[in-house]
Design goal:
By secondary structure, the chain is mainly alpha-helical. Strand 1, helix 3 and strand 2 form a beta-alpha-beta unit. A 3-stranded parallel β-sheet has the order 2-1-3, covered by helices on one side. The radius of gyration is 18 Å and the shape is globular. It is built from 8 helices and 3 strands; from the N terminus they run H-H-E-H-E-H-E-H-H-H-H. It has 2 domains: 32 residues, no CATH class; 140 residues, no CATH class.
């Protein structure tokens, strides 16, 4: 939880001169919430990356799904991070999918369950590596099927988060 002194700093006032608002948690959340922009119709990387961000980086992160050619423009307009799109801040690098890039960037690679999950996601997301993990094809099928049954990207993300919670729990066992 964000402390009162951090809220004071964000408001540009020293603690002794601030009047404490009724709902400081809301103020702190609004001030610190990360925004992320990616391509619409998410599957695999664009579902698991928000899952990772909300579970390990910023539980209050906000996600925007836009046409591929608008990702960079929208991320600039919203002062947001761009991901899993051409020219995005966080996207495939070398042979890594965006999920693996985020794990490296945020130094989360010491979590063995995340490393295991990354192998599965990599196989599902990088077509030429589909056979590198036995669970990759199943995860890819879930991602494609999700697109077929859920037209709303935010509801798709919400439903997909359960899949990754369950898969992460399996990786932790």
């Amino acid at each position: 939880m964000v402390t009162w002194s951090l809220i004071s700093i964000l408001l540009g006032k020293s603690p002794q001169y601030c009047c404490k608002p009724r709902n400081t948690q809301h103020l702190a959340t609004e001030a610190l919430r990360m925004k992320w922009v990616t391509r619409e119709r998410p599957k695999t990387d664009r579902i698991v990356c928000p899952w990772l961000i909300r579970r390990f980086i910023d539980k209050d992160a906000e996600f925007f799904f836009v046409p591929a050619d608008e990702v960079l423009k929208e991320s600039e307009r919203l002062k947001a991070h761009s991901f899993d799109a051409s020219g995005a801040t966080y996207t495939h690098r070398g042979n890594q999918c965006t999920f693996e890039v985020l794990i490296d960037e945020y130094k989360l690679g010491s979590d063995a369950a995340l490393v295991r999950l990354a192998k599965i996601v990599h196989a599902a997301d990088i077509s030429e590596d589909l056979d590198t993990d036995p669970l990759g094809a199943g995860l890819l099928a879930i991602g494609i099927g999700g697109l077929l049954v859920e037209p709303d990207d935010h509801r798709l993300l919400e439903k997909g988060e359960f899949v990754y919670d369950a898969l992460f729990a399996w990786c932790r066992r």
